[in-house]
Amino acid sequence: MPAQGFKKIILSLPGAILFYLAFSKLNLWFLLPFSLFILARIRDFSFWFLTGFLSFFLSLFWIRIAMVDYGGVFPPVAYFLIVLLVLFLTLYQFGLTYLMWRLARFNLLLLPFIWTGVEVLRSNLPYGGFPWLLTGEVLVDFPLLSHYLSVGGVYLGSLILWFLALSPLLIRDKRGPALIAVVLLLPVFSDPVEVKRPKDLKVALIQPNVEESIKLDKEKFYRYLPTYWELLDKALEEEPDVVFLPESAFPFTGGELPEEGKRLLEYSRKVTIVTGMIDVRFSEGWEPYNSVFVIKDGRVVDFYDKVRLLPFGEYVPFPFRFVKEIFGAIAGIDYVPGKGPRCLNVEKYKVGTPICFEVSYFGLVREFAECSDFMAVLTNDGWFRDSDGTFQHLRQARVRALETGRFVLWVNNTGPSAVISPEGEILKEIPYGEAGYLIFDFQE
After folding, report:
1. Options 119, 356, 367, 403, the catalytic residue
2. Which residue, among 416, 369, 360, has the nearest Cα to 390 in the 3D structure?
3. Is 356 designated active site?
4. 148-198 tens-digit pLDDT
5. Annotated catalytic residue within 306, 314, 343, 350
6. Strand blocks (E) in 232-364
7. CB 373 within 8 A of CB 198
8. Is 425 among the residues known to form the active site?
C-alpha cells in the first residue's frame, strides 16, 4: 500500500472510532461531536470516505449474527454483503455530503444542513430507506439538549449536534455566533409535543427469552411454551389490565389460534392480551403478515399488520429476487405489507403498535402517536443477541418517546424489555437474556 494511502487510513481511525463508540452499547454518546469536528477539519474526499466506511462497518458489524448464525449464510459471503451495504451507506451519507459541501465551497455554516438533508434522504430512499445511525439520536442522552427532540425530532437533533461540534470553528465566522444563537434558542420559541399520560391502567410485559435457534425450529419452539404459561401465571397474580408479549411470540399463526392456541385464548378470558403473531391469509395464494393481535374473552378483537417491511429480511425487493435461489434463509414467500398505520383498541385506550424495525421511522411513528394514548413496540432482537444493534434499536425507541410525548412499552423477546417515559427515560427494565415479566402501573 502506498505510504500516502496508509497515512489516510491512520488519520481516519480516530474519527471513525469515536463515531462507533457513540453508537456502541458502551453508550459513549458524548464522543460524537468530536468525531464530527475531526471530519469537518479535513477537506479530502478519500479521508471522508475512509472515515465513513470504518464508522459504518464498526457500527453495523452486528448484522453478521443474523446472517451467519441464524441465516445460514456462508461467512465469507456474509462479510462481503456487509461490506457492500457499508460501501453503499458510506457513499450515500459521507460521499454525497462531501460532494455537496464541496459545491458549496466548503461553507461551514451549510455543512450541518447538507448532512442532515442527506440523512432525511437516506431515511426514505431507496426501498423505504435506512434510518439507522442518525446523528441526532445521541441527543436523547445529552443533558439539556434532549429537549430539541421533543421540539423538532431527530433531524433537528442532527443539526444541533453538528452546530455543537462546529462551534469552535464557527465563532471565527462573522455570522457564526448569530446562527448558533438562533439554533440553540429555537426551543424557547417552539412548543414541545403534547405529552399524554394514561391513567387507571396496569400493564404486564412478558419477556420469554426464546433463543433464536429455538424459534427457527417449530418443534423446539412448542416445547418452550410451558415457560410462557409459567410467566403468564406469575404476571396474572399481580392483576394487570393488559399483558403484552413480543413480536411473533408463538409457534402457531393467527389462523391457528382456535386449535393450536387454545390455552392462549383461555388466558384471554382472564386478561386482555396484546401479542405479536405471524398470520397467514388466503387470497390468490398464501399471504403471510407480521401482525399484532388484541385478544380478549377468547377471541381476536383487533389487529394491526406491519406496514414497513424489512428489505431482505421480510421481503426481497426488485431487482434482487434472484438471491432467493442462492440463500435459503430468504427463499420463502415474501411478507405482505399492511394497508397503513392504525391504532388498536385496548381496554379504554388507543395503542400504537409499531413492529420491530418500524420504530426507526420518525414519520411513521408520528402517525401512530397522533391516534394513540401510548405506544407498545413489539420486537424480537434475539436475531442480534446482546450486540450494538440491540442497544441501537432500544435507543431509537427512547428517541421516538421524546419526539412523540408518549410512553413507549418496549416488548422484546430476549430483551431488554422496558417502559420508556415521554422524556425518553427507562423507568423499568428486564435485562437482556432473562425470562421474566415486569408490571407497570401508569399511576406510578
Report:
1. 356
2. 416
3. yes
4. 999 889 999 999 999 999 988 888 777 667 777 766 676 666 677 888 989
5. 306
6. 242-244, 272-282, 286-296, 299-305, 344-346, 349-352
7. yes
8. no
